[in-house]
Each structure stands twice: as structure tokens, then as C-alpha cells.
Specification:
The chain is built from 8 helices and 6 strands; from the N terminus they run H-H-E-E-H-H-E-H-H-E-E-E-H-H. Helix 7 packs antiparallel against helix 8.
Amino acid sequence: MKLLLNPMVLRLGLLVIIAFAAFVFGAVAIRRTRKSMVGDTASFAQSPLSAEGLPVHSYHAVIQQLKQQKHELTALQQADRRKAKASDTLSATVLANLSCGVLFFNASGLVRQANSMARQLLGFASPVGMRANELFRTATLRDGNTTTVEEAITPAVQGESVVRGLVLDYVSPEGEKRVLDLTVSPVLAEDASLMGTTFVLTDRTELARIRQDQETRREVSAEMALGLRNSLTTISGYAQQLARSRDPEFARQLADDIAREAAELDRTIGSFLAGAKAATTSS
């Protein structure tokens, strides 16, 4: 009895009870933790994870969605390429059927595109890759303009303004002479940056020839009119002298002079009419 009432024994018994309670609590906690781990393992076994921590079926769904997006993107790219090809084909067809020459220079000043009429007018089989000063090195501006072609087109090449009304005397590499009307226009992007320059060439050779012929005929007509006036004045003077003359020999001489002047007048008119007829036939 005294042993049970001893404080040391009481403390020891209390510690034993506490230790037993802790053991029981720990055992229960370990059992619950084990059950939880077993349940999680079963869940993972039913839905295995990918390397990124996603369930496999979710991973496959993402892959399928990416493939679908790739297919749609490819289809859009193909459609854009078809549209671009159709646009290029249409542009090439339009340029090929134009009656004027068209050249496109890039921002570096090199020819990137030239239609068939431009190649025909300039006399180059393929001007692609050439510069403007190489193409027009044999060209000079008309109407006594001492400015070079390169200086005249500078505002358009620099993207400042359109240059119109340049008339060139051009000599092809084969030596063929042409009169070309040139218009140069800068091509600007949406941000106003220079993308390149277009050159439009119109053949004015035949028109220039017609104008030259007309000018020549006007000069010839003026000379002929002056000659006719002189001839008529001479004939009129001879006729007046013939009317006043009483000398048969002098009258006969005047008549011969009138006949000779009339024959010269007939030759002049005949030559003029023959030249006019030839010019009409050739045109």
C-alpha cells in the first residue's frame, strides 16, 4: 500500500499510460495513412499520368487538337498560296497584253519584272537585274533638254513624286532608233516606305515620224508656194510685156519665156503631188 502511494511509482504509472495512449494513436494514424496511400495508388493505376502530370487521355486530346489546328493552318496557307499564285497569274496576263512597256525596279534600283513589250521596246531579251542607267545609257531627252535621263527620274526613284512627259530618243543595242514616252512612279508601302519604282514606256516612234513628215511637208509647201508666187509673177510680167510689144521677134521670145516658166511650174506641182501621194500610201 505504501508502494502505491509512493510519488515515484505514481509518476511512472502515469508515464506508462501516456506512452500506451501514444502508441495506440500512432498505430491508428499509420493505418489510416496506409489506407490513403493504397487508395491513391489505385486511382493512379486507373488513370496513369504522362511525364507532365496530365492524364493520358487528356494528353491525347491536346495532341489531337494541335494536329487539327496544324491541319487548319496548312489549309489556310495553301489557300493563301493559291490566291497569291492566281493574283500573280492575272497580273502577268494583264502586263503581257499591254501595248506599253512596264518595268518594276525594287528599292535597290534593280529590275525585278519586265513585260514582253518593255523587252521589245528596249531591245533586251531579259532586263531583269539591270539598273536604269544601264538600260537608258543610249537615251537622251528630246526638245533640247540637256538634263540626263538619270537626273530627270531622280524624284520618282527617291519616292518624292511621279515624273511624267519624258520623251526620249532611244537607241537599242541593235542600233534601232525609237522615240519613247516615259512615266516613272514610286511604289510606296502603307508606312510610306519606298518599295520600288515602276517605269511605263510608250512607243511614240511612228507618231514622231508622222509629225516630222508633216513638218517637212509644211516646209515644202511654204517653199513651193513661194516658188509658185515667183513663177506667176514672172509669167504675169512676161504677159504684160507681150501685150505692149509691137515687135514680132520680141513677142515670140516672150512667148517662149512664158512657156518655159509654165513648164517649170508644172514640174514643181507634179513633184509635190507625187511626194504627197507617196507619203499617203506609206502611212
